[in-house]
Amino acid sequence: MWKYPIKYDVIVVGAGHAGSEAAHASAKMGAKTLLLTMNLDTIAKASCNPSIGGIGKGHIVREIDALGGIMGKVADKTGIHFRMLNASKGWAVRAPRAQIDKAQYSLEMKKLLENTPNLELKQFTVKDLICENGCVTGVSTIEGVIFEARSVILSSGTFMKGLMHIGDSNFSGGRSGDLSSNNLPTSLKNLGFEIKRLKTGTPPRVHKRSIDFSKLEAQQPDDYLDGPPNGLFNSNVKFSFDDVEQKLNFKVPCYISYTTKKTIEIVKRDLDKSALFSGRIEGVGPRYCPSIEDKVVKFAKKERHQAFLEPEGLNTVEYYINGLSSSLPFSSQLEFIQSMVGLEKAEIMRPAYAIEYDYMPSTQIYPTMETKLIKNLYFTGQLNGTTGYEEAAAQGLIAGINAYNKIFKKDEFILKRDESYIAVMIDDLVTKEILEPYRMFTSRAEYRLLLRQDNADLRLREYGYELGLIDEKRYKKVKEKKKIIESEVKKLSKIHKTIEGRSYSLKKLLSRVENSYEKLLKDYPEDFFDYKKEINDQIELEIKYEGYIKRQKKEVKKLKNLEKIKIPKNFNFEKVQGLRYEAIEKLMKFTPQNLETASKINGVSFADISILMIALQNKKSFIN
After folding, report:
1. What span, in angstroms and rounded, lies between the C-alpha atoms of 603 and 26?
2. CATH number of the domain where residue 590 is located
């Protein structure tokens, strides 16, 4: 082994969506950072669906951007189809989603990282973590090189002992066409980490020329300038709060197909050939992204299932068949695909497959993403049992920030559940046992009216500025935005108009369901100012949801008292008299940092919290 002559502050292992955000954050904050990847040509590769965002996920991408991350900017730049999901529903559940050009997304991310100061990219495969006295000090690679660092962020995705399944065939790989990492899990196991298996899957990709689009329902992106299907794009839907030049201005539709009675018959007939249903797969799959085999079995009464045909990019003929992941043999896949509407002559370019991989149960990390067992070692992304590019990127961002902060002796950066979806996800990871791949939904957030995708900058941009990830110019912009919203809400409460003999404030009028800012702007041009849609919407939302927002903030305040009561890391729960055995077991496993976090752990009752609260008043007696 040869020791590389430069010692780094941070080494990031894996250049997927988590690793890209982690490396960018730590480098931008000032840490000398090294990003190691098995293949420099697959940085931030969208291994599965060619999209960014969606319900819950779109909220996370906007939060990443508000904090100074990069996923939203690259998605805006390389998007080829933008939509606001749930646009007809309440603001709390509306979410941006974009189809991306997969190849361009990866290239743009690579270009951005290559040009980030303090960041080096190198193509090596890590086989071992090097630790001394319970602290990570570097990594060794199969190429015979040792890289030293003050901290290491591990973001290996589905590559750890990845095993792909197509029918009764299985082969090693991190994803189709890429090798798996088989040495690293052994290194982690030898260090004492618990390792389990999960499973995910991907659908077939079909050649464009083999699709009969005339039989399919087109799903157009939002807001064309010249009308579908071949117009230029001028959508208000975006991820970044900054002005990002859209590189790919030519936008394309997606299409909707359906399974038929014959499709279901084929899948049922061949269930015993499915790797998932034949028992060849150990890992648990994502409940909210079931395979076609799952759908046919679990929703047996359903006569047909929807599938979305999504273009993989502007310069490829591949279409991703969203909703049809499978581990059936290729022959079965071709047969059931060709039984579907508009796909009767389909040519499969890439077969569907299931992949099972090693992951680290997230009870082994703190909310900073640092591991409890080894100091200065951080786990992020699918390694922690999550699924999705967005969830991974958010964890990477938080890990990169905290790795820098710990090295340079700054405070831990931990967001709260009432501040962001990112915090909801991490809090769930460190307080609950993850038995299946974790995916973000708006329903997971108890304060989702406060955590709308439209106000992520108002909630989080100040943090980004304090961390050094947001510059002065962008911070001033959001401060001015806040000032305008607050002053306009006050102003509109003071101006009254007489309608049918009764006096109403403009604030009261705007709070009515039938009124909007745009409508009252036309009715009372002398009192309303057009600040453009982004700010106009925020003024309207602040007024319309004022009562609900106040109620949620009141609920948040009640929990603040529990949050203030800290639990030392070396607190001995076994010494506390009166705590139930189950509570002791769970508290020792999750090691919560405060009473509020402890109260969310399954198996810990309010009675246990009361006993613990008393014990913490004399915590010195319970510290090992």
Report:
1. 37
2. 1.10.150.570
Instruction: Tell me how far CA of residue 454 lies from CA of 2, 91, 195, 353, 478, in angstroms.
Output: 50, 8, 38, 36, 13
Range of the domain at 266: 205-356
Q: CA 65, CA 73: separation in Å to the nearest integer?
A: 7
* Number of Cβ atoms within 10 Å of the Cβ of 425: 27
Q: Give me the CATH number covering residue 513.
A: 1.10.10.1800
pTM of this structure: 0.91
**284 and 328 in one domain?**
yes
Domain count of the fold of the chain: 3
Distance CA 410, CA 620 (A): 26
CB-hemisphere CA count at 13 Å for 344? Answer: 7
Q: Which residues pair with 255 in a beta bridge?
A: 218, 309
Q: What kind and span of H or E run contains 310?
A: strand 306-311
Q: Find where tokens 């581990």 sit.
A: 327
* C-alpha to C-alpha distances, 395 to 31, 100, 161, nearest whole angstrom: 18, 21, 22
Instruction: Among 333, 356, 379, identify where a domain stops.
Output: 356
349 occurs within a structural domain: yes
Give the integer Cα–Cα distance in Å for 176 and 320.
14
438 — phi, psi (to 5°)?
-85, 130
In terms of Cβ atoms closer than 10 Å to its own Cβ (0-12, 13-18, 19+), residue 127 is middle
Asked whether 232 and 357 are in contact (CB, 8 A), the reply is no
pLDDT digits (tens, 9 = 90+) for 297-343: 988 889 999 999 999 999 999 999 999 999 999 999 999 999 999 99
CA 423, chain centre distance (Å):
11
Residue in the block written with tokens 């967001």: 415
**91: region left, alpha or beta (phi > 0 left; psi from -120 to 50 alpha):** alpha
606: in domain = yes
CA–CA separation, 95 and 73 (whole Å) = 16
Coil vs helix vs strand at 127: strand
Cβ-based neighbours of 101, under 8 Å, separated by 6 or more: 50, 78, 79, 80, 248, 312, 313, 314, 315
Which CATH number is 282's domain given?
A: 2.40.30.260
Token pair 């599938």 is at which residue? 307
Same domain for 345 and 288: yes
DSSP string, 430-455: HHS---S-B---GGG-TTTTTS-GGG
Helix axes 57-67, 71-78, angle to 10 degrees: 110
pLDDT digits (tens, 9 = 90+) for 22-39: 999 999 999 999 999 999
